[in-house]
UniProtKB/TrEMBL annotation:
It comes from Rehmannia glutinosa. It comes from the Eukaryota. InterPro entries: Amidase_dom, AS_sf. Residues 31-475 form the Amidase domain. PANTHER family: AMIDASE (PTHR42678), AMIDASE C869.01 (PTHR42678:SF25). This is Amidase domain-containing protein.
């Protein structure tokens, strides 16, 4: 679709949109209206958006007035935030102190009232972004029932649909954010990840997702899953856009003590300086084939991955192939590693704190949520999608000796596995196909970036994932940006409505 002023919005980057604003080819109101039209047209099928901000158009008009006031004599924009006039969709776990709900996709929290914007939302608003609405997700991060609730399903929105292949999974839990960005219902969205929830849906919906080092972005005002591993990150169509957003949302927040420790990782001058087309040159990239690659034979993804290794070498990277992570099979099985046990104990404790801090809420504890679901079984499809994980979590009693032993085990698995691999081989990043390596990054709080890498014969997307040690976002940005520029693998979906 083109505006009356001849600017094509589909697939436009933040930078291109800002240039169009500056040149008078586009207004924030036109941009918001375009996305609202996209949502109205596509969302009944894709179900990527739960709820639209009723004030979005008013906020866009305000943004346009601010732009007019900010122009100097030569017509250039001055003193406006980096995301000024850019509509942003938020995962429906990220609190907004406005007319939007924050419900984790569940009717149990419908009508609850947060006391303030989430830390990342406050940063977005300060940068001039327009909150467009909330995206769907795997309800309660799929933690209501790990085996029962499908990826991308929640009671409030229904089943999210992959825009590339309706029969393919959108993955989760940040499914709606990835679906919406892929389908041009927004150019920017935020997701959250505890265990694969940004990387997997971004991979499956052919968009870019950044899982930041835990604590690099504030979790204050976000419905918690497991605070020791929770992180908030951007989901966009390009690395450039994702880095623009990361620059805005990263930083210290007195309401989240984890940001105090992670703030030391933020480089002076921010992250945009690492958008380097030659960023692969001189990088050492580690390839762990078992079990990430060796089960992919005879797929388009396998062939593409091998081709991408060639691209790395051609662009000046040193590829160290066929590496191994000690105890990788244990790490990748969250029940065996004990990761699920920690999630259950932490979730029960942290969700109670979150619910009690709400100004108004129909539920105040996990037990209340369980009871609500039982009383509203038809609404929440409880007979089909049960809540066995919730019930198991309710039986936990915080971090006892058993859980502390698991945490020590997980710490040792990280130090003696992934960290040892990275340090022994002096790697800048580990490179893996798809989202299979997410548990490695989850238990250590490590960062990762996924970039579109190709499509299967049926059209199902796949990505390539770059992961590293805590605070290595600058290296990952250089690598992923250079890879994206070299391959230009992403294509927009062909949606048949």
């Amino acid at each position: 679709m083109e505006t009356e002023l001849d600017f094509t919005i589909e697939e436009a980057t933040i930078q291109e949109i800002q240039h169009a604003f500056a040149e008078g080819k586009l207004t924030a109101r036109q941009l918001v209206d375009f996305y609202l039209h996209q949502i109205e047209s596509l969302n009944p099928v894709l179900r990527g958006v739960i709820e639209v901000n009723p004030d979005a158009q008013q906020l866009a008009d305000q943004s346009d007035r601010e732009k007019e006031r900010s122009k100097n004599g030569s017509g250039r924009l001055v003193e406006l935030g980096e995301l000024h006039g850019i509509p942003v969709l938020l995962k429906d776990t990220i609190g907004t102190n406005d007319k939007l709900n924050t419900t984790a996709g569940s009717y149990a929290l419908l009508g609850s009232k947060v006391s303030r914007d989430a830390g990342v939302v406050a940063r977005l608003r300060k940068a001039g972004a327009i909150v467009l609405g909330k995206t769907s997700l795997s309800e309660w991060y799929k933690f209501r029932s790990l085996s029962g609730v499908p990826n991308g399903w929640c009671a409030r929105a229904g089943q999210g649909v992959n825009p590339y292949l309706s029969s393919g999974t959108p993955c989760g839990s940040s499914s709606g954010s990835a679906i919406s960005v892929a389908a041009n219902m927004a150019c920017v969205a935020l997701g959250s990840e505890t265990h694969s929830s940004i990387i997997c849906p971004s991979d499956h919906n052919s968009v870019v997702g950044i899982k930041p080092t835990v604590g690099l972005t504030s979790r204050a005002g976000v419905i918690p899953m497991t605070p020791r591993w929770d992180t908030i990150g951007p989901i966009c169509r390009t690395v450039l856009d994702a880095v623009y957003v990361l620059d805005v949302i990263a930083g210290l927040d007195q309401s989240d003590e984890a940001t105090s420790e992670a703030a030391k990782f933020i480089p002076e001058g921010g992250y945009k300086q690492f958008l380097n087309e030659n960023g692969l040159k001189g990088k050492r990239l580690g390839i762990v084939r078992h079990p990430f690659v060796d089960k992919m034979q005879d797929t388009a993804e396998f062939a593409a991955f091998e081709l991408h290794l060639y691209t790395f070498r051609q662009r000046g990277a040193e590829v160290i192939d066929d590496l191994k992570i000690d105890h990788i099979d244990t790490i990748l099985e969250p029940n065996h590693s004990g990761e699920i046990s920690i999630m259950m104990a932490d979730f029960k404790t942290s969700i109670k704190v979150y619910l009690k801090e709400l100004e108004d809420s129909p539920v105040r504890s996990l037990a209340d949520v369980i009871a609500f679901n039982e009383s509203n079984a038809e609404l929440e499809k409880l007979t089909e999608y049960d809540q066995q994980t919730f019930v198991a979590a309710e039986r936990t009693d915080g971090l006892g000796e058993h859980e502390k032993a698991i945490l020590e085990k997980l710490d040792n698995l990280s130090k003696n596995g992934f960290e040892k691999l990275m340090k022994d081989h002096k790697l800048d990043a580990m490179v893996t196909p798809g989202s299979r390596a997410c548990p490695v990054f989850a238990i250590g709080g490590y960062p990762a970036i996924t970039v579109p890498a190709g499509y299967e014969n049926d059209g199902m997307p796949f990505g390539i994932c770059f992961g590293g040690l805590k605070g290595c976002e600058p290296k990952l940005i250089e690598i992923s940006y250079a890879f994206e520029k070299a391959t230009k693998a992403r294509r927009p979906p062909l949606i048949n409505i």
